[in-house]
Design brief:
Layout (H helix, E strand, L loop, with lengths): L5 E6 L17 E5 L1 E2 L7 E2 L2 E7 L5 E5 L2 E5 L3 E6 L2 E7 L4 E8 L4 E10 L3 E10 L2 E10 L5 E9 L2 E9 L2 E8 L4 E8 L10 E4 L8 E6 L2 E7 L5 E6 L5 E6 L9 E6 L4 E7 L5 E7 L4 E9 L5 E7 L6 E7 L8 E7 L5 E9 L2 E2 L4 E3 L2 E8 L6 E6 L2 E6 L19 E3 L2 E15 L2 E14 L6 E4 L2 E4 L5 E3 L4 E3 L13 E4 L6 E14 L5 E3 L6 E8 L1 E8 L11 E6 L8 E2 L15 E6 L3 H4 L24 E7 L2 E6 L5 E4 L17 E3 L7 E7 L2 E6 L3 E5 L17 E2 L8 E8 L2 E6 L2 E6 L4 E2 L13 E6 L5 E6 L4 E5 L4 E5 L6 E5 L2 E5 L4 E6 L4 E2 L2 E2 L3 E4 L9 E14 L4 E8 L5 E8 L26 E7 L4 E2 L2 E8 L9 E16 L9
Antiparallel strand pairs: 1-79, 2-72, 3-4, 5-69, 6-7, 7-8, 8-9, 10-38, 11-12, 12-13, 13-14, 15-16, 16-17, 17-18, 19-20, 20-21, 21-22, 23-24, 24-25, 25-26, 27-28, 28-29, 29-30, 31-33, 32-33, 33-34, 34-35, 36-37, 37-38, 39-40, 40-41, 41-42, 43-47, 44-45, 44-46, 44-48, 47-50, 48-49, 51-52, 52-53, ...
């Protein structure tokens, strides 16, 4: 009986990367490349892209008003028709914090070492019942789980410093009972079993001036001995001590010293002699003198700490801290020195801060953690070339180092990822009217490889990172002010007699003020109000007002004084707008006077943030470092880097007024057990909050500017689901809801707050990291760019996915109504409708069907021929690969060239495709392929387009395929070698 033939038409179905190829529904595809699904099931070629700008790197791409904004990871650029315009430094870094030590005692002098075998060791002093002891704790680096906590080094130990050398972390410390330098070797493989304490040297001076560095595969410890000389001892990779070598050429007794290595390799020993100079000397790894001692700076003042770094060269940058009794007048100087001792500088690196860590080198810049210490705002700032790029523990920092030469190491755990130890004052107590803080030890991860985010609101683009930066169209600088003024006691006085005859009680405050590129006035929080009594005085004096020395704002900041009239509480502006009192960051203070009659003063502007009025607007305080930022109604919402179990929100936007925050009052915690927040997005009237495993929401307008009448509730409400968002850059709002990537794949949170697995068919790409997600205007297309490529396209109208090749995007945005992206190497590219090349390279359609078995799995079938149907668009070659019997290797390959079939340009009719060159219809394209191997258990079809050029076009569209086939009786013929 002859085999019955039947025609089996297959209309293209969905891309399915999850199902086993044998069970993919006939017509569905296991690969689909470079197609758009606007006319699904017809497959059309995606549009091409064209480079519009090039830069050195690409990390962040955003649109701001009519501008395109690019962050390279180190610098910011505005992209204009004339090219890229440098807008200033913008280092893309993320912070995270881990509590290391919290107990009933106060900790000080924190330090850290990270071992490659996966442990992190914190060392610190603990003040216990009036006695200082040295302790250490060990954590698992990957999970930050404690292994051992609070291990006692010595009851007479202080200045502990851990160093990672060989298979050990050796914790050095000074012993006050013996004036020895000792250490405890901690095996990295068994950190719960430390070895016995080792005496490194027994001749340390009572001042315990020492420092250590890991260099040339061993630890070098420089110290001042009891003879007043500098010596260097060592620790080998086996944990054994090396006897000290006296550096005879250093013939003075340093009060401070530091040691580090360069790339030659050489050891730099830099030191300060009390009431003397900062000097340096250079030695080989064998401690043979290379450069005799030379002067870096002459008698600079009281130096408390020194550090330096040579990067990848032999030229070192040297930093030293000059102490001031008014702690926020302490400052850091820098100088550079060649190996030959040729010094450039010193120059000021940063005023109002002191050193808090060793220096480290990244992005071609030296970085160092600095400490700002004041009564109200002790904070750590990470400086890069003198600019603040991150802050830690805002208003809760440990301040200047408790002892000299006790700077935390900054070990690198991977390229661009560093750890540093710092103090966090998390408990404030009043004792006899004085405020005391109890500090614990935190570890901070500084990661230059993570993602940053941006949000536009209030005529500024706000950007996350180590600080919240803002772009006003002209420059990038810190949002708000790192600190507000804290004038010293007695800064406001009444002077003279007669004149305006001021009598009564008066108050005054100071604020910093700055105007952005759109004319918006940014103000800091006011200083604490100082009240004085005047009696027949002729004027007022405002002396020793602290300047704002930590700022990247290009145009001048003003120092603005407000005061009340007699016996009143409303503050009026004193300093002139026309002739402002300008901030000078190169000096510590400015002063001014006032003889404005009370009757005239009341005509001046009032201070909105009245410290004497509980109903007044809450003053602005710069936000902490944020790991994520987004808009919600008329506010910005952020996730604090140091405490992602909270979310904070700005004040509501007021036209003409910049966005203002107050991180001490405008925040809300999430329910315990929800996990740290990763991101958030507005949907309808709700703010959706995501952790890696949970989804929550809040709704409301938020509190008034004075903090009253908040309606966000006590905690966000959970949405029932077992997933959250693990990749914040995957968030995208669609007409159906929010799409996001969880640890299980891409999901959809509908507007009805129902969660569904929309990424099932793209599950094969779950191992890639999403770098951006954008809804393309005027389409139903959402583009997910993947790290290293490709880009995933999801058409929510068709409910189908496809893969776009050759598009490796670090970030993307919509600019001028077109999808625009930046590559990791800094090429900014934009989609070009109805063009079909990527910078001149042709875009090629490709697809692969599943394994098609008309007779069922392991059945037997005969396929005589197939017909491929589509539309001709431009000259192209279509390659057809046919595979049989589940074997991916093709059994037949055909090359179908359209050159001789369509020698004319289509589009000569009146009606047809709107993107046809002539406005007319494209002719159909149909190919019949006769199979060389007809009897088989299965057939799989791969289509791949190519083009010969030099002009590249759309090529073709594909509508489907039909098979002429029949089912044979019995099972597929298995080879004898496979039969049992």
């Amino acid at each position: 009986m002859p085999l019955a033939e039947r025609t089996v038409p297959l209309q293209w179905g969905k891309l399915d990367t999850k199902t086993d190829s044998r069970f993919v529904v006939p017509g569905d595809l296991v690969a689909l490349r470079n197609t758009r699904l606007d006319e699904f099931p017809k497959l059309r070629k995606r549009f091409g892209t064209q480079t519009i700008f090039t830069s050195s790197a690409g990390r962040l791409l955003s649109s701001f008003k009519s501008q395109l904004f690019l962050g390279t990871g180190a610098e910011a650029y505005g992209l204009a028709s004339s090219g890229a315009i440098d807008k200033g430094p913008l280092e893309a870094l993320t912070l995270s914090a881990q509590p290391a030590v919290r107990n009933t005692y106060t900790q000080q002098c924190p330090d850290i070492a990270v071992h490659a075998m996966g442990i992190t060791v914190y060392a610190y002093e603990s003040v216990e019942a009036g006695t200082t002891v040295a302790r250490y704790s060990v954590y698992d680096t990957a999970t930050q789980q404690p292994i051992v906590v609070g291990v006692l080094l010595s009851t007479t130990g202080y200045k502990p410093k851990p160093v990672s050398v060989g298979n050990y972390v050796c914790v050095l410390f000074a012993d006050s009972s013996t004036n020895a330098l000792r250490y405890v070797p901690i095996p990295a493989g068994s950190p719960t079993a430390p070895l016995s304490t080792v005496n490194l040297v027994s001749d340390s001076a009572a001042s315990a001036v020492f420092d250590a560095t890991v260099f040339n595969n061993q630890a070098y410890v420089a110290y001042v001995n009891n003879a007043g000389h500098v010596a260097v001892a060592g620790i080998t990779p086996s944990g054994a001590g090396i006897g000290a070598v006296v550096l005879a050429a250093i013939s003075v007794t340093p009060a401070v010293l530091s040691i580090w290595g360069d790339a030659y390799p050489n050891l730099w020993v830099v030191y300060y002699v009390a009431a003397g100079n900062v000097s340096a000397a250079v030695y080989s790894a064998a401690l043979i003198a290379v450069t005799a001692p030379f002067t870096v700076a002459t008698s600079p003042g009281t130096v408390r700490n020194i550090t330096g770094n040579a990067g990848a060269s032999t030229t070192s940058t040297i930093y030293y801290e000059v102490y001031a009794a008014t702690t926020f007048n302490t400052y850091i100087m820098q100088a550079t020195s060649t190996l030959a001792g040729s010094v450039t500088g010193p120059v000021s690196l940063a005023r109002s801060v002191g050193l808090a860590s060793k220096a480290f080198y990244y992005l071609g810049r030296a970085h160092v953690l600095a400490a700002f210490q004041s009564p109200l705002q002790p904070t750590y700032f990470l400086l890069s070339a003198g600019k603040v790029v991150a802050k830690l523990a805002p208003s809760n920092g440990g301040g200047l180092t408790y002892r000299t030469s006790t700077l935390s190491e900054v070990p690198s755990i991977a390229t661009g990822v560093y750890w540093v130890a710092y103090l966090y004052a998390d408990q404030l107590t009043s004792v006899a009217g004085n405020i005391f803080s109890q500090a614990g030890v935190n570890g901070a991860k500084i990661d230059f490889t993570g993602f940053t985010y941006s949000a536009e609101l209030g005529d500024n683009l706000h950007i996350t990172g180590g600080i919240v930066s803002m772009y006003d169209g002209a420059q990038v600088c810190e949002h708000g002010f790192h600190v507000y003024p804290e004038p010293p006691a007695g800064w406001f006085t009444a002077t003279g007699s007669g004149g305006n005859n001021y009598t009564g009680s008066y108050q005054a405050v100071v604020v910093y003020e700055w105007m952005d590129n759109y004319g918006q006035i940014h103000q800091s929080a006011p200083s604490p109000a100082l009240q004085i009594n005047a009696s027949g005085n002729s004027g007022f004096s405002y002396a020793n007002i602290p300047t704002l020395r930590l700022t990247s704002k290009a145009n001048k900041v003003s120092v603005v004084v407000y005061r009340t009239i007699a016996n009143q509480s409303v503050f009026y502006r004193v300093t002139s707008i026309a002739a402002p009192l300008l901030n000078d960051p190169t000096v510590d203070t400015v002063s001014t006077t006032d003889a404005i009659a009370d009757a005239s003063l009341t005509g001046n502007a009032q201070l909105v943030f009245n410290p004497d009025n509980s109903a007044a607007e809450i003053p602005p305080l710069a936000p902490p470092a944020l790991s994520f930022i987004t808009r919600y109604r008329t506010r910005l919402v952020g996730i604090p880097s140091e405490n992602p179990n909270q979310w904070i929100y700005s004040k509501a936007m007021v036209p003409g007024v910049p966005i203002e925050w107050n991180d001490q009052q405008f925040f809300q915690a999430i329910p315990q057990g929800s996990g740290p927040l990763t991101c958030a997005m507005e949907m309808d009237e709700k703010l959706i909050l995501f952790s890696a495993t949970r989804i929550m929401f809040v709704a409301g307008d938020g509190p008034a500017p004075n903090g009253a009448n908040g309606d966000y509730g006590t905690a966000p409400e959970h949405i029932p689901t077992d997933v959250g968002c693990s990749e914040p850059r995957s968030l995208v709002l669609t007409p159906e809801g929010i799409m996001f990537k969880s640890a299980k794949g891409i999901y959809l949170l509908s507007r009805a707050l129902q969660v569904s697995y929309i990424g099932r068919d793209a599950e094969g790409y779950n191992g890639s990291t999403i770098t951006s997600a954008r809804l393309v205007p005027n389409t139903r297309r959402i583009l997910f760019t993947l790290s290293g490529g490709p880009t995933l396209s999801f058409d929510y109208g068709a409910g189908r996915w496809s893969e776009w090749t050759n598009l490796n995007a670090a970030d993307s945005t919509v600019f001028g109504g077109l999808w625009t992206f930046v590559t990791p190497t800094g090429a900014v590219k934009q989609e070009t409708p109805y063009a079909y090349t990527d910078d001149g390279s042709p875009i090629l359609i490709g697809l692969k069907t599943g394994i098609v078995s008309f007779a069922g799995i392991s059945g037997y079938q005969r396929v005589w021929r197939l017909i491929i149907r589509g539309d001709y668009r431009s000259p192209h070659v279509l390659q057809v690969f046919i595979s049989n019997d589940d074997n991916p290797a093709p059994t037949q390959t055909e090359t179908l060239n359209t050159a001789s079939l369509y020698p004319y340009i289509p589009g000569d009719t009146l009606l047809g495709d709107t993107d046809s060159p002539g406005g007319g219809a494209f002719p159909p394209e149909e190919w019949m392929v006769k199979l060389l191997r007809q009897k088989c258990s299965s057939i799989q079809l791969t289509l791949q387009e190519s083009q010969l050029g030099p002009v590249y076009g759309e090529g073709l569209s594909l509508s489907g395929v039909s098979f002429l086939a029949g089912v044979l009786p019995g099972l597929h013929r298995v080879p004898a070698t496979n039969q049992i």
